[in-house]
Amino acid sequence: MDMALDLVAGIGRATLSLFRVTGAIALFALSGLSHIVRPPFYGRVFWGSFLETGFFSLPVVALTALFSGGVIALQSYTGFAQYHAQSAIAGIVVLAVTRELGPVLAGLMVAGRVGAAMAAQIGTMRVTDQIDALDTLSTNPMKYLVAPRLLAGLVALPLLVLIADVLGVAGGFLVAVVKLDFSATAYITATLNALKTEDVTVGLVKAALFGFLITLMGCYQGYNSKGGAEGVGSATTAAVVAASILLLAFDYLITDLFFSH
Amino acid sequence: MTDAPPKIRIRDLCKSFGSKQVLDGVTFDVAQGTSCVIIGGSGSGKSVLLRCILGLMTPDSGSIEIDGENILTAPASRRDRLRGEIGMLFQNAALFDSLPVWENVTFGLLARKRLSRRDARTQAGEILAQVGLDPSVGDLYPAELSGGMQKRVGLARAIAARPDMLFFDEPTTGLDPIMGAVIDGLIVNCVKTLGSTAIAITHDMASAQRIGDQAAMLYQGRLVWQGSANTLMDSGNPYVDQFTHGRREGPITMELRR
C-alpha cells in the first residue's frame, strides 16, 4: 500500500514539475519575444549573435548538408536500382533535403554548437554575478542578453538552411553524376520538376522555429543556472538535449501539419 | 545612527528561503553622505541584505526607503530611475568578459545614452585614472587583468555615473593586504569626492575600519550591534568582540557537522 502511494506521489511530483518547467519556459519565451519588439534595441549584441549562430556555423552545416545529400543519392540508388526506378533519385534527394534533412541537420548542428555556447556564456554570467551587474547598470538582462539571441536564431537558421538546401542537392548531384553516371542535365531537370515552392518554404518555417527553440533553450538554461562550474556544465548539457528533443518533436508536428494530406 | 535625515532607511526587513530565515527584522538607517559597514560571518545574511536593497531580491516583508520613498512599493519606472543613482562593486568585480575594459567602465553611461561611444572611450580613460589605472588598460579584456586591477575596474564602473549611493560587496576579498588597503583608500576617496552614501559588507576588520563611518553586525539574520566603525575592535558587545578578535569561544556558534 505504501509503495503504491509512493509511486502515485512520485508521478504527481514529476507531473507538477513538468508543468512548472513548461510554464517557466513559456513565460521566459514570451518575455524574450516581447523585448524583441520593444526598445531599446542592442544592435551590436544582435549582430554578434547573428554571426555566431549563422556565419560561424556555416562550415559545419555546409559539410553536413553536402555529405548527407550524397549519402541519400547513394542509398536511394542502391534501393531503387532493384526496381529500375533510378530516375526517382533526383526527386528523393531534393525532397528529403529541403523538407527534412536541411532544417533538421542544420538545427542539430547549431544546437550542439551555438545552443551549448549560449548556455555556457549566459550561465557563466549568472554564476559570476554579471547578470546582476547588468541590472545595477540600468540594463534589463532579458533585453540585452536574451532578446538579441532569440532574434538571431529566428533570422540566421532559415538563411543557413537555404544554403544547406542548395549544398545538399549539390551533394546528391555530384554523387549521381560523378559516381553513378547520371546525365547532369537530366538530373537537374528531374530535381526542378520534383521541387515545389511549398517544400522550401515549409523547410524555412521549420528552420525559423528550430532557431528560436535552440536559442530559447540555450538562454533559458544559462539564465537559470546555479551552483558554479558544475551548474553551468549541467545547463549546457540540458540546453543541447532539450533543444534536440524539442526540435525533433516540432519537426514531426510541422511535417504532419503540412504534408500528411 | 546619526541625527542627519537618513538617505537609506530599512525597517523590519525579513527574508527566508524555505524554512531558513536569512533576514529577521533588520532595521537600520544610513545618513546622507556617510558610509556604513555591515560585518558578519559567512551565511549571516549580509549579501541577501545588500541584494534586497539593490532590488536584485524581493524581501518577504519590511520596507526599504530611499530619500523617504519605499522602493519596494514604488512603480517599476521609479525603481528603474533609482538604478541610475546606484553604483555597485561586486565581490569578484563581475566585469563583462566579452567587453574591453573601457566598455565595462562606461557600460552604464552608454546604456542610459548619456554619451557616444567615441566620447565613452575618452571618458573611460579619465575614470580609470581616478582609480589609479593607466588609460591604456581600457583596451584590455578583463581576463588579462590581475585580481586587484579587476577590482579597480569594477570600482571605476561603479563610480562612472557619479552615483548618489555606492554599494560594496566584500571589496577586499581575495586581495593581498597591501592591495586591499589600496582598494579601501580608493573607495574612501571616491565616496568622499562624490559625496555618496555608501554601504559595504565585509568580514575584513581592517577594511571595515578604513571604509566605514558607522558599522553594524549581522548574526543569524538579525542586527546584533550598531555603532561607530572606530569602536569595532572595542565595542563591548560580546558578538562583535568575538567576531573582530576571531575568538572560538563566545555567543557566536558555528554550525559544524561532526
Walk me through what this model shows.
Chain A is mostly helical and 261 residues long. Chain A has one domain. Chain A is 86% helix and 0% strand. Chain A contains nine helices and no strands. Chain A has helices at 2-36, 43-53, 58-80, 89-127, 130-136, 141-179, 184-194, 197-223, 228-259. In chain A, α4 (89-127) crosses α7 and α4 runs parallel beside α8 (197-223). Chain A is globular and about 65 Å long. The N and C termini of chain A lie far apart (49 Å). In chain A, 45% of the residues are buried. The mean pLDDT of chain A is 94. Chain B has a domain at 33-58 and 79-229: P-loop containing nucleotide triphosphate hydrolases (Rossmann fold, 3-Layer(aba) Sandwich), CATH 3.40.50. Helix content of chain B is 34%, strand content 25%. Chain B contains nine helices and ten strands. Chain B has helices at residues 46-54, 76-83, 101-105, 107-111, 117-130, 147-159, 177-194, 205-211, 238-245; strands spanning 6-17, 20-31, 35-39, 61-66, 69-70, 86-89, 165-169, 197-202, 214-219, 222-228. In chain B, 44% of the residues are buried. At the A-B interface, α4 and α5 of A face β6 and α4 of B.
Topology, element by element:
The complex is a heterodimer of chains A (261) and B (258).
Chain A: H1 2-36, H2 43-53, H3 58-80, H4 89-127, H5 130-136, H6 141-179, H7 184-194, H8 197-223, H9 228-259
Chain B: E1 6-17, E2 20-31, E3 35-39, H1 46-54, E4 61-66, E5 69-70, H2 76-83, E6 86-89, H3 101-105, H4 107-111, H5 117-130, H6 147-159, E7 165-169, H7 177-194, E8 197-202, H8 205-211, E9 214-219, E10 222-228, H9 238-245
Parallel strand pairs in B: 3-8, 3-9, 6-7, 7-8
Antiparallel strand pairs in B: 1-2, 1-4, 4-5, 9-10
Helix pairs in contact in B: 5-6, 6-7, 7-8
